[in-house]
């Protein structure tokens, strides 16, 4: 099939001459607006009911999928519902519960350490300041921003692998270091957009703009993307690459928000749909 003329012209224009800073900012903000229309239901894809659960789930999500974390945390929080409970856990028992998430020994040390710090230094409550959160074992700036943005309503950019990959494809930044990426993206968008921008970009990266084979031919923002053509441009072939609700498959959360248009994920050990 013929490629989209609009996508072709957009990609060609991006390659024809250097883009000014002002033009890039305008294009970036338009991409954000269009992603907001594509993913009005964008949300954190970790199941949680309170700041402590989100903090723990985010620590567990390192080098594994949100789905695997969501399948693991029901048993974890049933056994250790509070920081005090988790700080007093028998390490081997905690390790066994979180084993499916990988790197379970290191993660267990972090969970017990941060839980003890919450108990001893913060009266058992998750602090709502970045400078406090990053003092907790296993908690870096990315994790802190996830918790602040989604549990406390404090705007922040979350630079995970999907976010970093896409903002470089979009030519919003050339930085590789997550903190430098965060700083440059923060300069492009108003603070009020930071948290939702993070969700929209990550949603797009997981569903359409994949690392190895982006579904360019099925991408709604193709005309605005300088990287158009790096992936499959044939619309029919591209549609077969779509994932999660865009591909008619379950999402990553066992308990997704009410406005999520896809299917909930299956519990750990359940047959896949």
Mean pLDDT reading: 94
- Give me the secondary-structure category: mainly alpha
Q: State the helical fraction.
A: 40-55%
Encode the helix/strand succession as letters: HHHHHHHHHHHHH
The tally of strands reads 0
Share in β-strands:
under 5%
Give the N-terminus to C-terminus distance in angstroms: 31 Å
Task: Summarize the entry for a quick read.
51% of the residues lie in helices and 0% in strands. The chain has 13 helices and no strands.
Topology (SSEs and partners):
Blueprint: H1 5-16, H2 21-38, H3 51-60, H4 66-79, H5 83-87, H6 91-98, H7 104-121, H8 130-133, H9 141-151, H10 161-169, H11 178-188, H12 194-207, H13 235-239
Which tags fit this structure?
single chain, 273 residues, mainly alpha, 0% strand, globular
Provide an overview of this structure.
- With 273 residues, this protein is mostly helical.
- The protein has 13 helices and no strands.
- It has helices at 5-16, 21-38, 51-60, 66-79, 83-87, 91-98, 104-121, 130-133, 141-151, 161-169, 178-188, 194-207, 235-239.
- Helix 3 packs antiparallel against helix 9, helix 6 (91-98) packs across helix 7 and helix 10 packs across helix 12 (194-207).
- The chain is globular.
- Mean pLDDT is 94; it is low at 1-6.
